[in-house]
Design a protein that fits this description.
With 82 residues, the protein is α+β, with helices and mostly antiparallel strands. The protein has a single domain, classed as Alpha-Beta Plaits (2-Layer Sandwich). It has two helices and five strands; from the N terminus they run ββαββαβ. Strands 1, 2, 3, 4 and 5 form a five-stranded antiparallel β-sheet that branches. A hairpin with a 2-residue loop joins strand 3 and strand 4. The longest helix has 12 residues. It is globular.
Amino acid sequence: MSNTPDASTAGSSSSETLTLRIDGMSCAHCVRAVRDALADVPGATVERVDIGGATVAYDPSRTSPAALADAVRDAGYEPAGV
């Protein structure tokens, strides 16, 4: 899991970017399930979901990397290294 400030908002606390490696994804259904789970987290904006990973912009005043990882787990997948 990478937790780095978004380049366009570095120095600002309004948005950060999280990249997750996700185990257990193997098809388009998996991608859709993870995308939907992450999109339901308040303060999160899904930037990309592919088999095996996702990138999400999030507002740290509204959510956290742990909450995003929990959403992935709740969808039935395992964030690697979290």
